[in-house]
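Q: I have 237 residues here and want to know how they pack in 3D. Can you give me a structure?
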Amino acid sequence: MSLSDSAVDRIRSNLKDVERHIAISRERSPRAAAGVRMIAVTKYAGIDRVRALLENGIQDLGESRVQQLMERVPQLPGSVTWHLIGQLQRNKVRAVLPLVSLIHSVASVRLLDQIRRTAAESGSPPELLLEVNISGESTKGGFSPEDLVSASSQLSAATDVSIQGLMTMAPRVDDPEQVRPVFRRLAELRHRLSDSTGLALPELSMGMSEDFEVAIEEGATMVRLGNRLFEGLAEDD
């Protein structure tokens, strides 16, 4: 069932509101990046809602489930830039690499090595972000900051892939100001790791619907938004 006109209008309005808040956040912080890409997270969105995003100018789509990614890629235009933002198991690497432009969730050296081996067979180096568990929560995956620094030599040697930067997921809190230190530590770690590895690491993927403004103020180059894009829609829209 296609979306109603009112639902499409609401998505368009939400997008404009998000774009406005991104611009405001960039203007009020000297640490903000020169440009910020919004990744539309479509994990819980029906395909018609996703198409409405594309019709309103969105090009970057983020999926956290490999199976849903594999189902949706052939359903949507080839112009879409796909991001895998969720957990990637090593036995799914071969299926995922041809589908995505950027993997945000490389959470271990073992996964990085699997991606390297698989990419070597295709001769097409994928772009990757290293997931960092800055907050230290046991429920979150990713490198600890200490383990990531310890792996500097292995990262420097990974010339057969393109490590673009870092990603983190902040704790869910009522006040976004509470997670500002998480984003700031990721930005600081990026600089430290760049110095130790010689990698440019231009990207910081951090900030979601609840806290993206704070993340942008702390230097995010990518924010991953889902719920914020679909606010105000009825379940049957």
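Q: Anything worth noting?
A: The CA atoms of residues 106 and 130 lie 5 Å apart. The radius of gyration is 18 Å.
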